[in-house]
Specification:
CATH superfamily: NADH Oxidase
Radius of gyration: 18 Å
Number of strands: 4
Strand content: 5-15%
Bound molecules: flavin mononucleotide
CATH architecture: 3-Layer(aba) Sandwich
Helix content: 25-40%
Order of helices and strands: HHEHHEHEHE
Distance between the termini: 33 Å
Shape: globular
Strand order of the largest sheet: 1-2-4-3
Number of helices: 6
Structural class: alpha+beta
Number of domains: 1
Largest sheet: 4 strands, antiparallel
CATH class: Alpha Beta
């Protein structure tokens, strides 16, 4: 297969694999470090390199999920609290290998709009997902639970101007990567002038 075909295949076959579909097998730490190294090559306007990851591995996966569930219980008004969500957050890590909390760390270059810093981090996250796919590692980018709540920002020791971009769950799965689906035809998403 040519390099171009390999890249196309990886992009086409990256799929969101939910934590419950993972099998508990551990991804070697050095592989996750490799994903982070690849993520560092995302485009970045003004070389602000605004991506920031906090990696949870080993016992810290379970404790992160416990903390996330507890923060959900505390942050959500009692009338909106759902036990099913609490339980899901609590057990999200049961079959997962690593969790990466991804954030945009706002730099001090005022010329770069926040939107562009967010865009750069999204590109960096996609690089992790694609590199993981290339190495046979399942991934899931989630903004569930209280990802966007102030409590999570504090938990991750971020500043006010920083933004939590999501939680990336990594692991292995016994399921084969499915074809995926898109609802709108691709041709509706561009105009060729
Ligand atoms: C910023 C972002 C946040 C997401 N958060 C969630 C989430 O909280 N729960 C969920 O089920 N999927 C979440 N997803 C994954 C999407 O559901 C998934 O990408 C979509 O269904 C398309 O499937 P695919 O990734 O396999 O192509 C998120 C995706 C993005 C880009």
């Amino acid at each position: 297969m040519s390099t171009a075909n390999i890249v196309d295949t990886v992009i086409r076959h990256r799929r969101s694999v939910k934590p419950a579909q993972m099998n508990g097998q551990k991804v070697p730490d050095h592989l996750v470090q490799h994903f982070l190294e690849m993520a560092d090559w995302a485009p970045t306007h003004g070389l602000t390199e605004p991506w920031y990851y906090r990696v949870y591995s080993g016992d810290r996966v379970k404790s992160f999920c416990q903390d996330h569930a507890d923060m959900y219980r505390q942050a959500i008004p009692a009338e909106k609290f759902a036990m099913a969500t609490y339980e899901k957050l609590l057990h999200n890590g049961d079959k997962v290998s690593h969790i990466l909390a991804a954030a945009m760390k706002r730099g001090d270059n005022p010329k770069i709009p926040e939107l562009e810093e967010i865009a750069a981090v999204a590109a960096s996250i996609q690089t992790i997902l694609l590199t993981a796919t290339a190495h046979g590692v399942a991934s899931f980018w989630s903004t569930g639970g209280i990802t966007h709540h102030q409590a999570m920002k504090q938990y991750l020791e971020l500043d006010d101007r920083d933004i939590v971009m999501g939680l990336i769950y990594l692991g292995y799965t016994d399921n084969s990567f499915t074809d995926g689906k898109r609802i709108k035809p691709n041709s509706e998403k561009w105009i060729w002038e």
